[in-house]
Amino acid sequence: MSVKDRVIAIIAEQAVLDVADVTMDSTLESLGIDSLGLVESIFAIEEAFDVSVPFNANDPSQSDFDISSVASIVAAVEKLVADQHA
Amino acid sequence: MKRVVITGAGTVNALAQDVPGTLAAMREGRCGIGPLDIRDRERLSISIGGQVRGWEVEAHFNRQQIALYDRFTQFTLHAAREAITQSGLVFDDQLSLTSGVVLGTAGGGVNTWDENYRAVYEDGKNRVHPFVVPKLMNNAAASHVSMEWNLRGPTFTVATACASSNHAMGLAFQMVRSGAATAMVTGGSEAMLCFGGIKAWEGLRVMSRTACRPFSMTRDGMVQGEGAGVYVFEDYDHARARGAHILAEVAGFAMSSDAGDIVMPSAQGAERAISGALRDAGLNPSDVGYINAHGTGTAANDKTECAAVAHAFGPHADRLMISSTKSMHGHCIGGTGAVELLACLMALNEGVIAPTIGYEEPDPECALDVVPNVARTARVDAVLSNAFAFGGLNAVIALRRI
What we know:
The complex is a heterodimer. By secondary structure, chain A is mainly α. Chain A has a single domain, classed as Orthogonal Bundle (Non-ribosomal Peptide Synthetase Peptidyl Carrier Protein, Chain A), CATH 1.10.1200.10. By secondary structure, chain B is of the alpha/beta class. Chain B folds into two domains: 238 residues, Thiolase/Chalcone synthase (Peroxisomal Thiolase, Chain A, domain 1), CATH 3.40.47; 148 residues, Thiolase/Chalcone synthase (Peroxisomal Thiolase, Chain A, domain 1), CATH 3.40.47.10. In chain B, strands 5-4-6-7-1-8-14-13-9-10 form a ten-stranded mixed sheet, with helices on both faces. In chain B, a hairpin with a 3-residue loop joins β13 and β14. In chain B, α4 runs parallel beside α8 and α12 crosses α13. Chain B is globular and about 65 Å long. The model of chain B has no long low-confidence stretch (mean pLDDT 97). The interface between A and B is medium-sized, with 13 and 16 residues.
């Protein structure tokens, strides 16, 4: 399974949606994921990929981890995974 | 209804191990937050805290006591001794029967849990010390204060996360006011600066790695502290009859529940507690000169709290001062309201308003006079102390000069 598919599966589970309903241009808000759901998703991503996500709930926009859409989250995780293997 | 006054105060926190030292630090705007000195700190991503340093447990307690007292109990007993000694009360005969203890803590003996989980899970031991349960239970501190000082009336512990000690002090106030008790030893304590205690908070992603900067645009989270604040609340007539030195009147108290979210605060819930405390105290908004804020330094709390104060006080919100001493001693969780009440006593008795240190840049969503960085002198006659807990539980205390 690709990084993209695994991230989408994590987000879909958090949103209690079918993976088919999570598109790359979805936002967490449009999927009904609140701040606590976001923190839980990030935890699930860290556990799944064995990475450390730089994210501070006090200021998500200033974090190095872009959560503005599913696509941006996938891209950020792909980078973290690549950096880890670099 | 009885009037209720404070006749003793005591504390241990990152700034000092007594009240005079703590007030001196608050006047100077000194920061007690620094690098954490705990086991396995290299496995934590958060490396700072408001830790009590130079705590010489052997200087305060004997070997049998140390075996029985978790760190949160040690802090409590030390602070209680300072408060009760200052009050001059001797709890014998009838006074002993009508005086009790209500204390707040969120986690109780967290260090004891941590150490003994290590022993059985990490070290693989199959036996733990016989006192683990009496050490870690949340009411251990209240019970030991009761035993040490012969307080035989209503005694229990309140747990409402970061509002625990405000709820405890509010209940103690109500018991003295109603005549159910003559004097109550009250406040709260927390000691969760251990590996598990910090690791749990890291998970929420609300902690700052650098500093606690309440109300500043540049704030990036809370910093954990530890410590205790303990007071003697006493029937005013009883205190006056014995010529006691009175530190302040506890004028009112109110609590509310957001009934909303388990972590996100609500301005409406906070506002109801603030307005309720004013009503309970018979104060007009314009009577209040200073508010000790909950002021955690998180994005969510600080803007919500400022909105609540603005709504509750109307135009007077721009004329009062509001500061967060968490910037200096960190967030003492279940003990924090009790440690912070010291800043309220200093405002009433010395006319010195403790500053919000670490303040760098104004935030339009926190557009109140937050007494940035430097203490201020001002005469104030009535003050509030806010506490807003995870779980949406709010508790606000009003004090008045007497």
